[in-house]
């Protein structure tokens, strides 16, 4: 009965409602921010210089980027792309690209807000995210609480189960390792890392993510160059399938759009409201909320337009195509084995284990950030949350793939609906802060944000971060 209820909710959320909301939001912010993802494309790379700086209350911008990529770069990049192709055909990849380009503007907007409305928790560390800017910017505590509950359901529990499912399935397929035993190992390793809190997770991410990403891209580039004569045909197939120009017609077009956007969102998370938690935890460089918008916009680009494309090319070059059943990580493993022989299974098993494990760890940080909303930001609250999180990992390691994906889709969909409404509502603030950043750059200054520079919705001296006084001890505490 629970599965039927989840299916019904997903039917409403993913039956074009979310697709329309995400596309409209992407166009809206692209328009209101002057095509920021295209006009400022090179600037987001330039902010990586000096991005390792932080203060004692936050993590560095580079660590925040790697933490957000840890959550993004997971099953969506390997299993999710395979699901999109198996259900929507090659054309789904085109729509993944579209939602990523539009999502870069949406990601910029939500990450800027995460940094702007961040607060300090009981330990004096930065915390923030949609629940915080909904309560402080819109004064809608009931909506903030609703979002936090959805996030706990999704990132705190279900998404980690999804990632664990892909790890254990990949190891079982490659080596016959029992899923329960693999699940025990995962929770032991995850437990060791999350005990260190956000800083421990950030340190893990800043070393693991560059290694994983570069290694995966190099393998994909090598496979592509080896099969370079097939690439034009693959690209033609993607574009023709994307617009329903093949025999299947409009049915294939609808499937390509739906599954491409759905899996694209699941991978890059733009608009879902997850990434602002990482953005809020950062000590920005330069000292302006918009800088985190640019840094996290880069994360959307790297996740979908780089890493997801690598997986898609690997699968399509191996002859992967739309089928009658949902295919997950095994489709990617089979494709890699086609290219690399017996080592293909080993490579994908290692890749999915690392990719998904980083997501498992980063998801914990997102859930922990919202404990402050419920006054559970204490030892007891963290302990209960940690036990529940680890138990869900163990459950996910042995669960049925379609049921786990369905729960993940529902949680992500509910979060996204609330977050999109909130950030569109806060558009005047996003535009004002972004323009302040650009105006300072035009004057040849390094942007510095101070309270009063812009007209900020819901802003008071007590509930909004003042970039000029970021180290003030009691500054920006959230009033419940």
What do you see in this structure?
- The structure is a single chain.
- The protein is mostly helical.
- It has one domain (44-441): Amino acid/polyamine transporter I (Up-down Bundle), CATH 1.20.1740.
- The chain is 73% helix and 1% strand.
- It has a two-stranded antiparallel sheet.
- Helix 8 (141-175) packs across helix 9.
- The longest helix has 35 residues, at 141-175.
- The radius of gyration is 21 Å and the shape is globular.
Note the main attributes of this structure.
480 residues, mainly alpha, Amino acid/polyamine transporter I, disordered C terminus, transport, membrane, Na/Ala_symport, Sodium:alanine symporter
Give a topology summary.
Blueprint: H1 2-32, H2 36-39, H3 41-46, H4 61-72, H5 75-88, H6 91-116, E1 119-120, E2 126-127, H7 130-138, H8 141-175, H9 179-194, H10 197-226, H11 231-242, H12 250-268, H13 275-280, H14 289-317, H15 329-340, H16 342-369, H17 379-398, H18 401-425, H19 427-442
Helix pairs in contact: 1-6, 1-18, 4-10, 4-14, 4-16, 5-12, 5-14, 5-15, 5-16, 6-11, 6-12, 6-14, 6-19, 7-8, 7-18, 8-9, 8-16, 8-17, 8-18, 9-16, 9-17, 10-14, 10-16, 14-15, 15-16, 16-17
Family: Belongs to the alanine or glycine:cation symporter (AGCS) (TC 2.A.25) family.
InterPro entries: Na/Ala_symport (IPR001463)
Transmembrane segments: 12-31, 142-162, 182-202, 209-228, 234-257, 298-318, 347-366, 387-405, 411-433
